[in-house]
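Lab notebook page, bench 4
Experiment: in silico fold of construct C2
Operator: M.H.
Input chain length: 236 residues
Purpose: comparison with the prior construct
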Amino acid sequence: MRSLPSDQTAVDTTAYEGEIQLVFSQVYLLMALGLVITAVVAASVSTSPAMLRLIYSNWWAPLALFAVQIILVIALTAAVSRLSTGVAVALFVAYAALLGVSLSAIFLVYTDASIAATFLVTGGTFGVMSIFGFVTKRDLTKLGSLLIMLLIGFVLGSLLNIFLRSPALYWILTYAGIGIFIGLIAYDTQKIKRMAASGFAGGRTRGGLVVMGALALYLDFINLFLLLLRIFGRNR
């Protein structure tokens, strides 16, 4: 799910360099906090037999977790301009924690070493593409529109393959998804930069932009990590 609204207005970023740097420092800090919370919760749940029984012995529990996560993202995206920064951050943290509960399964399937290695690969890839999105003079708007359409196709294909269980489609979607999220990292970074440089036009606030920017990049990172884990993960 994409979180940042479209903003295609060309602006002179030089007049807002200080504001842009402040926004990005807060975006990356909040994103990192979300990743830490997700990792800690996932690791903790994976070592708790009681929590694992609660989640995986009831067919409805994973569905309920997923539904609550979707509701949180939709609510945050729709109401961020009306929420205080503290409430928006709290919703983001709650989402990161709930996603950590859902991702506890990866610690049961993959070795800790392969998870750590994949996280480092994801971090390096994210860093390179985010820097590219920040410094490039090329307008990535058209690329972003294409990537979002491809993302919709990726989601639909993934849902379809739940029933088809096709190994070939699984790997096609894996590599296509990696390319999509690598591109989205650059696209979302440039979008955040443009929105910061616009002086928060359209009723946006710095706090709202920070939360939504952190959420967008957080989701890009998590999805890229999970797709790379299909390749680099080693089963226990």
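Observations: Residues 13-232 form one domain. Residues 140 and 187 are 6 Å apart (CA to CA).
Next step: discuss at group meeting.
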